[in-house]
Design a protein that fits this description.
Helix content is 73%, strand content 0%. By secondary structure, it is mostly helical.
Length: 175
């Protein structure tokens, strides 16, 4: 409850401030973590769009499309922060991937899954780091939303990987 009151107070104060005043509400650490996370999400979106081209299993393609939509939601959250605090936007990746001369058989679905799964693990850490370093309740809330999207997606993606046999599990331990 206290977090919501702090966030509401920040938002009310932010509405009446000029852009220069809003920038003063942001620490350099917060600006950096927003910018760094947005770059990572742009890269994740671009890589996922590329890997979607190589996916063969139709169910897997649907899962990847859902991941792309989740990435777009996270990017929207972060871009709104950059707009609010006048943080320059990093260069966006192209919306379309040209793949006319690519052999789509170069990757297996298992490799694509493991590449994305590993990237999601890093994304969880990056988003948690952003939440941890945010002084502003508004910025913490934005990272909380992005983190919740990532955690839900990670759960579903991990379960899908287990079901399809894509997830490598370690050897059992028997003392």
């Amino acid at each position: 409850m206290e977090m919501k009151i702090t966030k509401i107070a920040e938002q009310i104060g932010s509405i009446t401030r000029k852009d220069q005043d809003r920038e003063k509400l942001l620490t350099i650490c917060e600006a950096h973590v927003i910018w760094e996370t947005l770059i990572a999400k742009y890269d994740d979106l671009h890589l996922t769009n590329i890997l979607l081209i190589f996916a063969k299993d139709e169910d897997f393609k649907i899962i990847l499309q859902d991941g792309i939509e989740a990435l777009k939601k996270q990017i929207d959250i972060l871009e709104k922060l950059t707009d609010t605090y006048n943080i320059p936007l990093p260069k966006r990746p192209p919306d379309h991937v040209n793949h006319s001369n690519v052999d789509i058989n170069i990757f297996e679905d298992t490799t694509i899954f493991r590449t994305i799964h590993c990237g999601m693990q890093g994304s969880l850490i990056l988003l948690m780091d952003g939440f941890k370093h945010a002084v502003s309740a508004t910025i913490r809330e934005a990272f909380r939303k992005a983190l919740n999207i990532e955690m839900d997606l990670y759960d579903a993606f991990t379960d899908y990987g287990k079901m399809k046999g894509f997830l490598v599990s370690g050897p059992t331990f028997r003392p």
